[in-house]
Amino acid sequence: MKRVFKIIGWLLLLLVVVITLFIIVYWVPDRSVDELKARWAQSPSQFVEISGMQVHLRDEGPRDDPSPILLLHGTSASLHTWDGWVDALKNDRRVIRFDMPGFGLTGPSPDNNYTIENYTRIVIAVLDHLQVDNSVIAGNSLGGNVALTTALLYPERVNQLILIDSSGYLFKPKSIPIGFKIAGTPVLNKLMEKVLPRFVVESSIENVYGDPLLANAEVIDRYFELTTRSGNRQALAERISQMQPGQYANRFSEIKQPTLIMWGNLDRLIPPELSDRFHKDIIGSQLVRFKDLGHVPQEEDPFKTVNALKEFLALNRVEN
To answer: For residue 229, is pLDDT > 70?
Structure first.
């Protein structure tokens, strides 16, 4: 019996040593905005005071556009997810994008509020700051849910709606990125605030891409470094705990704006079947599916997806 206890003791000691080494090796402290700006806030980035935050924002294209396009990213992403779209649009359209509270260089909400209603208030505050009365709003994943809710709560500010692999309904994922699992797990999410193996971020990105090989080193760098922006890891856990899935699902039929729904058939996070539900609930909406793309199709194939957007906008012009 003494020998058994001795073996257990050595195993426990070994476990402690392994955990300690893991923490030492993967210890990643928060980074300040100033540390991250040089790489991720190059021109035309600007920081504007919105609701007590310095919101990281880019506003490009002709200022006489009667209906600017506002782009909203998803969970753990940033305004950079739209780079390909902006390059294709900015010569003809005014394109606005920003890092939403809790993500990118904007960082955490000062009042720790990550409800869907607060996200919509921030959207309206950004548009007010830029003196934009109404716009086309496009959103991916969480950004899609924010766009949807903005169209419901502030319909006079939204001319057209673009939903890309959008959340909004209750759903059961086929596969959850490991980073999301950790952020939603008590104790582990506290550990993640200081310990963040790069392979966790890499695996999470590959999980949401239709073709994992498209998750190149620069993409992984971006997600990894911006996740370590001071306060973002804590904010992610808070957002997951505060958001109520399906909160406005019974009101989606109220949406009257022309709506385009885009979806990657290889999306394992939000099932492609939900695109059909959006299409049914939003009367007159248009649905486009991409057979070889995943949860972030605008990032995986900007050319194909932005062309679908252009075709939709051409059929739903906003007159001066």
So the answer is: yes
